[in-house]
Amino acid sequence: PADGASGFGWHFDNFGMAFQTLFEVSTFEQWSDYVYSGVDVTQIGQQPVAWSVTWNVLFFHLWVVMSCFFVLQLVIGVLIDAINQKSGAALYTDLQRNWLRMKLRMSRLKPLSPVPVPTSKWRLRVWRLANDERLVN
């Protein structure tokens, strides 16, 4: 409806009402009424003519798709941000979680003191045998 004279209480004559109308369309609350009235629009001060501007249907459908996409992205973004602020690990894969656990364990480790080399001959031979490269790996 062009001049605000629609009996539905909505129009596109000023920015505020146009914004409210498009918001109501994006909530899917009786949005088909807006579409049907939108295709009957003529000129300012003229009576509506049935299906005079059928391209308005395309506008309303594009608006619904774009606004739903925007709202969905907004909601998902807020949820992911809230999850990341709590722990940050909720969205990691199992491999990434295991890596974080291993990194935490490694940071808690303290260096080991060097193993003293035995001084007696017999214990030195056994120690060398036990620490031989071929047996370690």
Describe this structure in words.
Helices cover 59% and strands 0% of the residues. It is rod-shaped and about 115 Å long. The chain has 137 residues and is mainly alpha-helical. It is built from 6 helices and no strands.
- Helix percent reads 55-70%
Q: Strand share of the residues? A: under 5%
| Number of β-strand runs | 0
* Main beta sheet strand tally, sense and closure: none
- Overall body shape: rod-shaped
- The sequence of SSEs as H and E is HHHHHH
Q: Residue-averaged pLDDT, rounded?
A: 84
| Poorly predicted tracts of residues | none
> Helical element count?
6
Q: What is the radius of gyration computed over CA atoms, rounded to a whole number of angstroms? A: 36 Å
Distance between the termini: 83 Å
- Secondary-structure-based class equals mainly alpha
Question: Notable features of this structure?
Answer:
mainly alpha, 59% helix, 137 residues, 0% strand
Task: Outline the secondary-structure elements.
Layout: H1 15-26, H2 31-38, H3 55-86, H4 94-108, H5 121-130, H6 133-136
